[in-house]
Specification:
Keywords: Hydrolase. Helix content is 50%, strand content 9%. With 299 residues, it is of the alpha/beta class. Strand 3, helix 10 and strand 4 form a beta-alpha-beta unit.
């Protein structure tokens, strides 16, 4: 955000989970982002924003979930909007897949927040959750799920989320969670982004496997989306948030300067980000130095 402000951009962030913290809920997140953009475009000119600005979206991980859903829902939900570009890093296209990937690992705590977020969004999921949690573990589940993300991540690490449910993993194959996860936890189902996309993903992402993003990109591209997709051969979900930011910011800067993208899709395997002199000019010397140091530590 600092780098974007240094470029003279207007920057807004969206509380896309809403007042109930509906973490991981695609529709809530996408609609909130689009409504926020509408509000900015309506009210911004009153405090100096251009009447016809170029505008874009950028999100990583949970932010990419919100931005991708916004891009996917935009043609039907907000057809008047016209994004110059959408940058998406660390995508999580399939929450069911994420659930299986992170279980018993260092990021297992995210599962508690994600399941609870879906339950707060959909009453039938609320009922299912209360009916299927083991009574002896229900209090512990809600303590983890209802805390801040750092708390659930820390205290929930290495836990088996399925052990909290009466039928274990089979509980999630029941009709209610299966339908909810397919409806509001699966990208590529409700539309094709009209805006050009820049996607970046570490091939060793430990939260959402790269195969899921590959499938989403293929799905979008098969229906005419315009995507530049970088698969980083070094790093993981956490490090890609740092190393991929340079390329994402450069790509967005090009879009917001009015340069158009060609039709079609292109996938490129990369090794970290290319921190060139041009990158320094976009990021600013101080932020560029921080990125250099971060990447140096990874190597």
């Amino acid at each position: 955000m600092a780098a974007a402000l240094n470029l003279g951009w207007w920057v807004f962030t969206t509380d896309y989970e809403g007042l109930d913290a509906q973490f991981s809920v695609g529709f809530q997140s996408g609609h909130a982002v689009l409504d926020s953009v509408r509000a900015i475009l309506h009210e911004g000119p009153n405090i100096g924003l251009s009447e016809s600005p170029l505008y874009a979206l950028w999100g990583y991980s949970g932010g990419a979930l919100a931005s991708s859903w916004a891009a996917e829902l935009q043609p039907a939900y907000a057809p008047e909007l016209n994004f110059a570009g959408v940058a998406l890093g660390g995508l999580t296209p399939n929450v069911s897949s994420v659930l299986r990937t992170i279980n018993k690992g260092s990021n297992a705590g995210l599962a508690f927040s994600g399941i609870y977020g879906q339950a707060k969004a959909y009453p039938n999921m609320t009922h299912w959750l209360s009916s299927n949690l083991l009574p002896s573990k229900s209090e512990d589940f809600y303590t983890l799920a209802g805390g801040c993300l750092s708390q659930s991540s820390g205290d929930g690490a290495s836990q088996d989320i399925f052990s909290y449910f009466k039928d274990g993993e089979a509980s999630f194959f029941q009709a209610v969670p299966r339908s909810i996860f397919q409806w509001s936890g699966q990208m590529g189902v409700h539309g094709i982004p009209r805006a050009p996309l820049f996607a970046y993903k570490a091939t060793s992402d430990e939260i959402s496997v790269v195969a899921d993003t590959n499938l989403l990109v293929k799905r979008y591209c098969s229906d005419g989306a315009r995507i530049e997709y970088h698969r980083d051969l070094v790093g993981n979900h956490e490090t890609e948030a740092i190393t991929g930011s340079a390329s994402a910011l450069q790509w967005l800067n090009t879009r917001l300067n009015g340069d158009q993208v060609e039709d079609g899709c292109a996938t490129e395997d990369v090794v970290l980000s290319s921190l060139s002199i041009g990158t320094a000019a976009v990021l600013g010397e101080q932020i560029f130095s921080i990125l250099q140091s971060a990447i140096g530590g990874m190597l």
